[in-house]
Each structure stands twice: as C-alpha cells, then as structure tokens.
C-alpha cells in the first residue's frame, strides 16, 4: 500500500469507529480540535521540565501522537471527504526516515501545531507530520499504531466496553499491552492488517474468557 492508500484506509476506519459510537457524530458538535491540544500537552509535559532530570517514555509519547491523529482525522472529516483529504495530503505523508530531533526542536514542533490548532480551530495535518518527523515517527509506524488502536477500540465496543462487561486485564496484561505484542508479529506480507489484528485479539480474548 502507498502512504496515500494508508491515509485513506485510516480515514475510512476513523469514520466507521466514530459512527459506531454515534451514528450522527458529524452533527454532534464535538470540538475535536480541543482534544488535539489537550493531547499535545500530554506530549509536552514530560519533556519540558528543565528543573529536574527527566527520562521520557518515547513509546508512550508516540502513542499520544497516535491519539492526536485519531482526533485529527475526525476533525478533517468534518470539513472534507475521504477522497479529497487523502489526495490533498498525500505529499505530507512522505515523512523522512530520520532520527529523533533535539528536545528543543520537538518543543518547537509541538508549539507550532498547538498554535495553528487554536488559531484555526482545526487540525493541521502538515504541522502534525512535521511533529512526527522530529519525534522520529515514520508514517509506517504511525499507520501500524493507529490501525492497532482503532481495532482495539472497536474490539472493546463489541465486547461490552460501554456497559462494563468488557475484561480489560488479560491474564496479567492490559489489553493494550497484548495489542502491542500482536503488532510486533506484523509482517509486510499481511494484506488485511485490520482483519489480522481483530482475529488475533479475538483469539487471545477467548482464552481470557475461558479462565473467568
């Protein structure tokens, strides 16, 4: 799949997920851009404190960026359609395969995205991809983590997450930790990544239910 095709798939998946939660989500008045800047604060919090030694969990910060992308995709879908968005931002998805930049450069990228989000009250895809770049997050990694979290959210919803019957601890591991292990098994020859992840989660969850 090209990056443009991956972006299109993520947009489709986000629309479907939002529709599961609220079939009329586009008219619900959700302020997705506010969720973006709240999550940006989560990225900034562990990396700006000069008055004490910090040891950021970069894997966790990448997951924060993935959460931002969920909200960002939702916001873009309020203003345009899937085909237009995937075409418009196809070049922006070509993130260089560079290493993580300096803390100062990451600060600047966070603040740039924060500023554009608050001023425009919209998600800024180009600035977001710049942030991914300086954080060392490739588009392939963003895609893998996004699809994984999206499928886990769907799985939770289908197994009673809203009514409280869902089991989040799977034999000593939280479900997101189980997902992380499953993501590590992905190989380039797997064409249907969402289907593979859903099947793997279902198999693992059946084992959990069998022991309850």
Word description of this protein:
The protein has 212 residues and is an all-alpha fold. It folds into 2 domains: 3-140, all-alpha NTP pyrophosphatase fold (Orthogonal Bundle), CATH 1.10.4010; 149-211. 65% of the residues lie in helices and 2% in strands. The chain has helices spanning 3-21, 32-44, 58-79, 82-88, 103-120, 125-134, 139-158, 175-183, 193-211, and strands at 169-170, 173-174. β1 (169-170) and β2 (173-174) form a beta hairpin. α5 runs antiparallel to α6 and α7 (139-158) packs across α9 (193-211). The protein is globular. The N and C termini lie far apart (40 Å).
List the helices and strands and how they pair.
Layout: H1 3-21, H2 32-44, H3 58-79, H4 82-88, H5 103-120, H6 125-134, H7 139-158, E1 169-170, E2 173-174, H8 175-183, H9 193-211
Antiparallel strand pairs: 1-2
Helix pairs in contact: 1-3, 1-4, 1-7, 2-3, 2-5, 3-7, 5-6, 7-8, 7-9, 8-9
**Class per helix and strand makeup:** mainly alpha
Helix content: 55-70%
Q: So what's the CATH class of the largest domain?
A: Mainly Alpha
Which strand order spans the largest sheet, edge to edge or round the barrel?
1-2
Q: Identify the CATH architecture of the largest domain.
A: Orthogonal Bundle
Give the integer mean of the pLDDT values.
92
Order of helices and strands: HHHHHHHEEHH
CATH topology of the largest domain: all-alpha NTP pyrophosphatase fold
Largest sheet: 2 strands, antiparallel
Global outline = globular
Number of domains: 2
Tell me the number of helical segments per DSSP (H or I, 4 or more residues long): 9
Rg of Cα set: 18 Å
Ends: how far apart? 40 Å
Number of E-type strands? 2
Fourth CATH level, the homologous superfamily of the largest domain: Type II deoxyuridine triphosphatase
